[in-house]
Write a structure and sequence with these properties.
single chain, 271 residues, Four Helix Bundle (Hemerythrin (Met), subunit A), mainly alpha
Length: 271
């Protein structure tokens, strides 16, 4: 806003005060912009045929995206602007970028079916992000409603990274990639619950063995990053369906939408 002068009236006199200028918090938005650059870098590398670097760009964007919200909460710098910026960044890095990378890598060889799969993924990412924004206050914080877009991007980019690292000829897995991209995209817009890890507190003390396990995990990832990272996200990508099946089998409520309110916008969402 402009620094306008507004009168404040009282019984005795009139005082002119200056409106405070609205600003943007720098620190969390730097992480968001860095995540956006990761997605942009991934697209540029894919256009140049550097698919390993392209996939790494997506994974770097994932790490940075997971930090911006935590940094904002730790520094008490949350803002509506930051939320909107984060969604737009996610759409580029985890929606458009994986769709374009997969199309350039192998889906373009399938003709119309190739861009069909790429567009479905991109559209599902947009729908998933929009639904996440409007359902923020009614979803159980312990779970995501559908596969989160960073994990979906990791399924696509992780497979490309693994194939490029192991020397798999893209043309031999074209139709598998077609199915894989559709799986990642459509899973984003399901009601299947995926654990969010948001109830894990970084401020709480943990046993010493936990630190040892974390160190071992880092060491295992360094042995073969493409295989290990892709394997981790494959397990996470199917974990939601396992949780859904177990809840269904036990007769438990399968939706992550809160049922404690009677808001009209929630009707039809409890399944």
């Amino acid at each position: 806003m402009n620094n306008e002068l507004e009168p404040i009236t009282s019984d005795e006199d009139i005082v002119l005060v200056r409106k405070p200028r609205k600003g943007i918090y720098v620190l969390p938005n730097l992480f968001t912009l860095a995540a956006l650059f990761g997605g942009f870098y991934a697209i540029v590398m894919a256009m140049q045929g550097q698919f390993i670097q392209s996939s790494i760009g997506i994974f770097c964007a994932m790490v940075l995206d997971s930090l911006d919200g935590r940094v904002a909460r730790m520094t008490n710098t949350q803002s509506a602007f930051g939320e909107q910026m984060d969604s737009l960044s996610d759409m580029v890095s985890f929606g458009a970028a994986p769709a374009l990378i997969s199309y350039v890598w192998v889906l373009n060889g399938l003709g119309k079916w190739g861009w069909f799969a790429a567009f479905v993924y991109c559209a599902c990412a947009a729908l998933r992000l929009a639904r996440f924004n409007v359902n923020t206050h009614v979803v159980d914080k312990r779970y995501f409603q559908g596969l989160p877009s960073p994990a979906a991007a990791a399924l696509v980019a992780g497979f490309i990274w693994w194939c490029s690292d192991t020397g798999v000829v893209p043309a031999t897995v074209a139709w598998f990639m077609f199915v894989w991209v559709l799986y990642a995209g459509l899973t984003m817009v399901t009601n299947v619950p995926f654990y969010s890890f948001k109830d894990v507190s970084m401020k709480r003390s943990v046993p010493f063995a936990v630190i040892v396990l974390i160190a071992l995990g880092i060491a295992v990832i360094n042995i073969d990053p493409p295989t290990v990272m892709f394997g981790i996200f494959v397990m996470y990508g199917v974990s939601g369906y396992v949780v859904y099946a177990v809840r269904r089998f036990k007769g438990l409520h399968t939706s992550v939408i809160s049922t404690s309110t009677d808001e009209p916008d929630e009707r039809g969402m409890h399944k």
